[in-house]
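Lab notes, practical 5.
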Amino acid sequence: MIALTAHAQGTILAVRAQPGARKNAVLGEHAGAMRVAVSAAPERGKANAAIQDVLARALGVKASQVALISGEAAREKRFLVVGLAPDELRRRLDAALPGGG
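Output from the prediction step:
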């Protein structure tokens, strides 16, 4: 199950990044994190920005509502999704994951 943590401004989502992939996509769950593949290279924040866009699209929120809060240079990242409570984020995750919704 993907780890979600309540935050005063929304919910923190654990993400496992896969930069340099063929296409941008949500791949599923890996070790308690949402696996996200992006074609962008992991340099100068390009992959992080691409992950932010993929998450926003998959969750049905604006990119400005998704903020990287830790793991800037690591595969394991934590993103804050502003304005969504954990239960609402869980519902949207279930719909966004392959085989969901």
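Observations recorded by the TA: The two ends are 16 Å apart (CA to CA). The mean pLDDT is 95.
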